[in-house]
## 1
Amino acid sequence: MLEEHNCEARVYDRFGGSNCSRRGVVFEDDKWWCRQHSPSATKARREAAKRRSDEDIRQHEQGWKQAHERERRANCFNELVAALEWIDTYLANQPLDQQAKFLITEKVKEALAKAKNT
């Protein structure tokens, strides 16, 4: 007759710890374990939990980066609108010459630099 073995794991609850009450069916590391507490099963569960945690962290960081980019763009919006309004006003009141082209170009470059580097 085959000898029955108990699981070697210690389990804990609010009252303290005790040995696992399940039958040992997996033999690993020279000890008998139930399917839940075998070292390979425990390792697989921990690795799966770590993968889920890493994915949650990655998604959180990605969401933060997207929110930061939206905020950065929103902060540039007023300056870009002001630059375009200035260009519109200037072009309505002035004939286009070299000086006008230079001023328009500088104003546009200033607004674009602010939008790209902030």
## 2
Amino acid sequence: MRTKTFLILAVGMMLAPLPAVAQRAAPAWTLIARTRELAWFVDTARIAAAGPATTVWLRFDYPQPQPVPSDPSRHFSRVETQTALDCAGQRATDLVFRTFDATGDRLVADDPTVRGHMRSFERHPLGQLFVITCQVLEARRRGQLRQMIQALQRAPVPGRIGAADNRRAGRRTG
């Protein structure tokens, strides 16, 4: 009788739908801003809070292929990064850093060594964008994401943000 009950429970658990947190969300890239140098997106489906930090996926699409610093014969046109942001402390650390070719599908380089310590937005090459990303996260929390995105898409992005920022940061991309 125990075996039969166990089998019924086991089969029932296998057939039951997984909870939402266990299911992997498909990326939902939302355009935040576009400059002559890049288009910047945040994945609104893969935002996760953990303690004081919020983990977000960011994507940067470059209209012109950029040389991989470690191998100028190779080029990338897209960067995807998973970043932990401590918005209150104005600090960030990159968790994943991947570069893709012009199709946006073929991985050019994947740097598994980016995990590092938190550093201030001021000292991070994408710090200006992180400040805005934190504003987006706060708007999302308040249920005002659509209004914030619309406002950002009309506003100029501060400073010059482009592929050179990753090179200045000493990014290994290959």
## 3
Amino acid sequence: MKKSKQSKQSKQSIKKHKTRKQSINKHKTRKQSIKKHKTRKQSIKKHKTKTISKSQKDNKKTELYKKFLQNRIKFNLSQYNKGMYKSKTQAFAIAYSQTNNQFQQ
């Protein structure tokens, strides 16, 4: 009698164990599918942010270009006043060429 009870209990515990494993496996696969879905969303978000960041970088480059040009014009005009250049237009032209050399792509 004891053996039969033990064998029944062991069979039941094995069945429970199998069902637990199956439920765990189902849960894992569900988690994996959720992860895949999240990574798809993240990749789409990353792609969108890349385009935004490029435009922001372009704005920063143009701002830096403008600031550098203004500083160059001020410096070259001061050099013109000291007698370094023959005319203001020459000072402006040199300022533009210096900034273009600095920001070559």
